[in-house]
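Good day; I would like, with your permission, to put a structural problem before you. I would ask you to consider whether the tokens describe a fold that such a sequence might reasonably adopt. The full record is reproduced below for your convenience:
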Amino acid sequence: MKRQYFGTDGVRGEFGGPVINETFAARLGEAAGRWLHRDGAIAAPPLVLIGRDTRGSGPLLERALARGLAAAGVRVGTLGVVPTPAVSLAVREHKAALGVVVTASHNPAADNGIKFFGPSGTKLDDADELLIESLLPETPATADAAPAEFAAEASYVHRLSERLRPGLLRGWTIVVDAGNGAAHRTTPAVLRALGAEVDVIGGSPDGSNINAGCGSQHPQAMCRRVVETGARLGIAHDGDADRLIVSDEKGVEVDGDEVLAILAGEALRQGRLQHHTLVATVQSNLGLKRFMEQQRGRLVQTAVGDRYVIAAMLEGGFNLGGENSGHIICTDVSPCGDGLAAALLLIEAMIATGRPLSLLRTCLKKFPQATRALRVTRKPEVATLALLTSAIGAAEARLGADGRVLVRYSGTEPKIRLLVEGPEEALVADLIASLERAVEQEGLRA
């Protein structure tokens, strides 16, 4: 049975639409409370902590969730505006039964979403989300809720500041683009505590400017500022700061695959990479697999979504993984994606090797790649689309063993994502164009 509302990263959509609205949030809160009480699994009243990003709709959804949770006999605490990894930390520190984050991550301000974390600080799995959906009431039986306040921001800043020696970054200039999101205070605070001079952009959220021309989706301004200020690196977060995109000192963007290669290479060198294994998704460049083989390591690949990366890491006892979109998970630091923690690990690698990012990134030789994210009006199974499957088969035949094709729907947006990798840029460009034409001919385009 498929989930109806949950995607790869919680429930997400336009605020005021058929799903992301106050009524549905109250229903979802009540369903989550019912799930906590299933079979008497948790003694009443369990504690649920709610954090959010900076979207204007966040407080409305937070209050609606709290009312639904209270109706199901749950004690609710609020964390305010904090990064997603701070919610994960707070759940563990306060021994909460559940954590909730009201965020739409990298989506525009008009969207919002809701995602859940279990008591271990990791996202709920597909089966638990499906069970919560099955417990949704037709209409919410809301109750008055007066959530207690928990100081999650200070605890998160303190925990991350301990990752490096105090004053270690004295003399460093670092550009931070917080995307007008949840990390607009936390990331600068940690870096300054470590001695760095921090130049902040995207640090003035107003409820409607999250991810607007800034942050990990729009890193160009960060890259320019790095060059202008002579910074060692730049860090750009998405709206809830569970991922990052980096700029090297020359103002060139460093993507998630390059970050993973740098971190995995350094961990292998120091004997810290558990089972010599890195976990990534099928979206990662083929060059990452070749890199790990050259380093006498191994790459395990999962479906797209950091939840699947984390599940594979926990199952295999691996401690490093992530996505090329910038979700980086190091379970030695946190059981969920954490953009700031990843940045600190990257800085550690720079210090340990004495090399700037522009040199460190050259360890990964990427295959030529082309991607498209096309808005669609519907999402029929790809296997039922004759023209598209024919185009995929033709592309795979031309690439043989020297490349790959990946076609999938976004789990968080009305989009179909196309990816082609191969030995030559001209061939890759030709094949991605053939896939795009097939999507058009199938009448899927919005």
Notes: The longest strand covers residues 75-81.
